[in-house]
Amino acid sequence: MESVLHCHGGHKIPLIGWFMTSLFLFCAFPPIHSRLWQENYEPIQKVNADELRKTSKQFTGNGSGPDYFRLLERDGSSLLVGARNLVYNISLLTLRENQRLEWFSSTQDIETCTIKGKSSEECQNYIRVLMKKPATEQMLICGTNAYNPKCRDYLFEDGQFKQVREFSGVGSSPFDPRHNSTALQVDDQLFAGTVSDFSGQIPSIFRSPKTLKTKDGTSFFNEPNFIGSLANGEYAYFFFRESAIEYTNCGKSIYGRVARVCKNDKGSARTKYIWTSFLKSRLNCSVPGEYPFYFDELQSVSGLVKGNYNGRQQDVVYAVFGTPENSLTGSAVCAFTFGDIERTFNGRFKEQKNPHNNWLPVAPDTVPEPRPGRCVNDSLTLPDDVLNFLSKHTLMDEAVPAMYGRPLLIHISLQTRFTTVAVAPQKPSVDGRVYDVLFIGTNDGRVIKAVNLDLDNRNGEEQLIIEDIEVLPGQPVTNLLVANDHVVVVFENEIHSLKLQRCYLASTCRECVRLRDPMCAWVNDKCMSMDENNGNLPWPKSGAGPIQNIKTGLHERCPADPSIPYSPTTNQAAATVPLCRPCITQLQCPVCPNSAHSAHDQNRVAIHDPSKNNRQKPEDNEVPEYQTANTDLGNVYKEETLAIAVVMTLLPSLLVGFFIGYQVSRYRNSAFKESNLSETSDYSYGPHRPGQDPRPADYRSEPIYAPADYPSSKSINVVLNLQRNTLKNHATSTIEAKPNLPSKKVYL
Ligand SMILES: *[C@@H]1O[C@H](CO)[C@@H](O)[C@H](O)[C@H]1NC(C)=O
Ligand SMILES: *[C@@H]1O[C@H](CO)[C@@H](O)[C@H](O)[C@H]1NC(C)=O
Ligand SMILES: *[C@@H]1O[C@H](CO)[C@@H](O)[C@H](O)[C@H]1NC(C)=O
Ligand SMILES: *[C@@H]1O[C@H](CO)[C@@H](O)[C@H](O)[C@H]1NC(C)=O
Ligand SMILES: *[C@@H]1O[C@H](CO)[C@@H](O)[C@H](O)[C@H]1NC(C)=O
């Protein structure tokens, strides 16, 4: 095959180069390897759906059609859930329905919706927003209302909801229940991040009733998916992912972002109804190294967690990220502190002087005063130069670094992706410390329980996964909520509620300690939960106090239990193995460069063995580390398993290589700029770089999978589907249903 890749007459890279590159990269990037390997490890406790059903509760709604459940608000011991034509008020404890509020779209709205080509399922009223207004004791509710979003104020009187008024919900509620949107209540104001037009192309952050919104066009957003929002201090924060405008290499890249606006923004006289405080920055959830590996596709954020980390009081938010669909399937959980978020917003701005330049930091002395984006008492008094500056500079130069400088948790798997995260914050454990316990939903119906060990060890790779709980196999978890001692798991059409812990599944001391669950301890010959002990802290001291050891999962006071070997390596989720070194010795893998080993910090075998407790981690020296690593390995992992792991590692790269080869041969005139590869630190993932469209710009402007004469009379529905799926990432102006598509700039 004489296929070559080049970008508009750029240098040519033979296809074989791609193969070599991807092989090289897979070997040169040990952390991902070791994580890939972890697909084989067992979480400490697996709970299957049958076991779980003995203690969990379910809610399935009316069952008359898809509900697209959305958690709207927690109201004391009840939960308000948006559904199809309904708001359910269900009890947190039992998941039984307390009350319901019905709101059907009018026949006229449904007719209009049907005429516009939507299905009868879409032409329903999915309730997406609910806000209690303390001042008036009214409740604001907004729904998709058959693709014509409406809001209503209700008053609860004489045991009934009475409608007070109805008004447009455009900007507050999405048009489609499947649109990713977010809403936040700040005092009596509603802040919503959603699309505000029928075709789902105009995103906005909209505040009502004191109307403010973002400007259309790419200065604020570039095809965003809104993920979450929260208020902290004088700001409201919005989390979303979007096509990165500052990424000017070949193709396109999705970045996770946080945006900030002032709660008290009043707009300006000149730019009426437009925010005068909007700024955004990238979130950096990456595995560090010479070539950091980025998890960029933000999927979910937790609520605000206030806690003690590294001995300091900090405000933290947890976030789930994924990789692009067409690359290796990976998910990661990162934590970000508001200290770091604020530092980024107080840092330098980013700008592009003209469309042919790169995005560069703005020189600090050209930034006007008062500092753009910072809250002022009255934004109507902001001088023109500040407003001008803000209209051109919404993006910050630096990315918000992840707490600990790396993800807390990484999962590489062929099927499973993380979708959501919720936190049981600052749970006290027997060792006197507090831990954030994370619950992570997956796209295949599981909930993973993990612990933030709060190790400020930048090279540490320890991740502690306590449980892998099968809740509703095959169904993606769409939301999670930790409430009291339960975690509420939301699916499109079902809601489940599980206890935060299943300590009782451990029947011996060794099993109980092995769980390493901060919420469990062995006491009175039982594996008890801290909740059961109900605030009886400190635990009973009589003779033998509670037994637990989060750090190692071992305790000398546990009597021997022959069924569980006394080696923590079998139960430590943290065990990681460097694959590049075995790859040298076992397969004589020729592409493993020496440079890979210089990243010694990432290559260490992180198996903790208490029997060698005082053994130091090997220091960096001339002795090739893989020898020691292999010796350690031999005890734990068999050679066959290693070989499997290596194959598992190489397979995706070969598949990607094949895919690229296929694409290349398909578009022989295609182009790929070599210089891009060497000038960016993302080089390591060249061929299947997250979000990157391997196809050249000239092809991107054609609907490749649809014939050029694609009939425009086809329903919008079909077109949108194509765009979302088949043409994902290649959506272009040739699709008629996208009148306001922001023009994508590609500079080559
Ligand atoms: C609940 O289901 C019944 C029968 O399936 C249906 O008639 C009714 O309209 C549904 N209620 C709502 C609010 O969708
Ligand atoms: C939900 O139901 C509970 C129990 O009936 C009630 O106390 C609460 O006020 C209800 N919430 C709303 C918003 O109606
Ligand atoms: C919303 O987000 C989910 C998960 O990230 C994604 O699969 C889906 O396509 C998004 N919806 C839209 C309308 O983009
Ligand atoms: C993201 O964080 C990693 C690790 O801390 C760092 O190496 C990398 O340079 C950062 N990337 C950006 C774009 O800030
Ligand atoms: C803003 O208002 C507060 C109280 O209303 C006042 O103390 C402060 O000095 C004002 N700041 C400015 C910059 O005007």
What would you call the structural class?
alpha+beta
**Distance N terminus to C terminus?**
26 Å
Kindly provide the radius of gyration, computed on alpha-carbon positions and rounded to a whole number of angstroms: 27 Å
Q: Residue-averaged pLDDT, rounded?
A: 74
Describe the oligomeric state of these chains in a short phrase. single chain
Give descriptors for this structure:
single chain, 748 residues, alpha+beta, Lipocalin, 5-stranded mixed sheet, binds 2-acetamido-2-deoxy-beta-D-glucopyranose
Question: What's the SSE blueprint?
Answer:
Elements: E1 4-5, E2 13-14, H1 15-28, H2 30-37, E3 45-47, H3 49-53, E4 57-59, E5 70-75, E6 78-83, E7 86-91, E8 97-102, H4 107-115, E9 127-133, E10 138-143, E11 150-157, E12 160-168, E13 182-186, E14 189-195, E15 203-208, E16 225-232, E17 235-243, E18 254-262, E19 279-284, E20 286-287, E21 293-294, E22 297-301, E23 305-309, E24 312-322, E25 330-337, H5 338-345, E26 350-352, E27 359-361, H6 384-392, E28 400-401, E29 409-412, E30 418-428, E31 434-442, E32 446-452, E33 464-470, E34 479-483, E35 486-490, E36 495-499, H7 509-514, E37 520-523, E38 526-529, H8 580-587, H9 595-598, H10 600-603, H11 625-636, H12 639-666, H13 674-679, H14 697-700, H15 716-724
Parallel strand pairs: 3-33, 19-28
Antiparallel strand pairs: 1-2, 4-36, 5-6, 6-7, 7-8, 9-10, 10-11, 11-12, 13-14, 14-15, 16-17, 17-18, 18-19, 20-21, 22-24, 23-24, 24-25, 25-29, 26-27, 30-31, 31-32, 32-33, 34-35, 35-36, 37-38
Bound molecules: 2-acetamido-2-deoxy-beta-D-glucopyranose (5 copies).
